[in-house]
Amino acid sequence: MTTQCILPAETVCHILRYSCPRDIFRWRAVSKWFHATTYDASIWRYLYANSCLPRPPGPFSSQSTAYLEQALVRTERLAQSWTTRPMRDMSHVELGVEQQPYGGPVGDPIKLLGGRWIVGCESESRFVLYDVDANPESRRQVIWEAEHPVETWDVCLVTSEEGQCLIYVLFNYNNEDPDMISWIFLEFCLDGVSGKPCGVTVIDIPSSSKSVFGFSDAVLAVGNSPFIYMVDTLVFDMRTRIFYEFPGFLIVLDETRHKVGSDFTVSGISSCVLLTSTHILAVYECSDPRATLIQAFTVPVDGSSISNGKGVLRLSHEGVSDHISSGATPLRNSIVDTLTGTTNVRLLERLDVNHGLNVTWGDLILPRPFGDDADALPVTIVMNEKFVKHKKPHKFQSRDWSFRIDCSEDGYLRGFCIDDSPQRKFMKFTVDVTQEKCTLAVGEFLYPKWKHTKDTDLDPYICLDAASGRIWWTKRCDNQKAVVLVVDIE
Q: Average pLDDT, stretch 222-237?
């Protein structure tokens, strides 16, 4: 006898959208009808779009229902056990990544892009893509041969609004002329199923900007936004494929000028650029007077400022804070109020784990401009702080310890602290600021339980990809070859 639900399938699907994946799996055991209904794609696309946990970008039309299921189940399982169980490894992969003598993303560890890909530079001119999820015999693929030895380079991965995974590589080389440096900007499209490169585009950098780059290191900055920030100079809009530069430094609001003083200049101060889905934020920190200037920029709507292949960003907001520094990072992406048009951006200012988990964050409230060419408006900055003690006190064996964090664009942060003692204890924690109320969870300092990884392989400078549930580090580096260990954790 077949069990039939008295409610229409559309109604059941709507109800299941407000369940969690674990409950949906239980419904599958009720009957064949429920088993078939729970595979409805609309359920999983709704759950994926409204989840606040770290997860790969999506949902996109190219992502199957099975992929969305697996990604949600994995991130929810990590959320449930992250602060309650010791770190465990389910599997690991070792990759031999060759690097040029002075190559690689300058000053950074090897990047695991999207929790899956690594880009290396071999023999000073050959760029190679490594796919962790591919079969061992097909993990390595040459993607570009440079004409001359590469000086410096950097790489980033972004996902377009259509769900296309794109890898961008920026590098420079000396074209046998000490006064002439050539810059190359590459875009690689990845196949949505196989993960292999399926096309490459050389993006022309405006000729008037190449001389501005000078002898700078190649550095790319990217966030959960449509923008890429390049070498302290340009912002690349992936939607329109137009480059933008910042206007000349100027404080436009009288109240801002009064707070920072008339002698405030950009020389001798530390600064950073933060990318959001709606604004490009420039943060200038000065020690005398003790103040931080925050300016928000947008892309001009009419495109009238485009000249010689690039445009000029428009200053939309500015404000001053005594609490936010140039070391702040985006914690929650832009949220636009549909009624007032006000944009809220949440920044992580401080995270400390010495005596407990201490989190300080600031909300930037950007009022809606009165028009596309309206004057800059003041930024309202609201600071918040929350502290929770460790579950079990722990004395660090040395002063050398570190922590790693990774967060979703919704404001859910997952991280761990690792001490530098021979035991290598971990303390895992989460910070949830997806809503107005902040929720902190802190685990105990526990030894990891490895099945596939040796304790001697562990490095204190571990990187974390919260969306894929993977950690990685450079196991050893000799003869220009780095052995990278990628571990799936639970």
A: 85
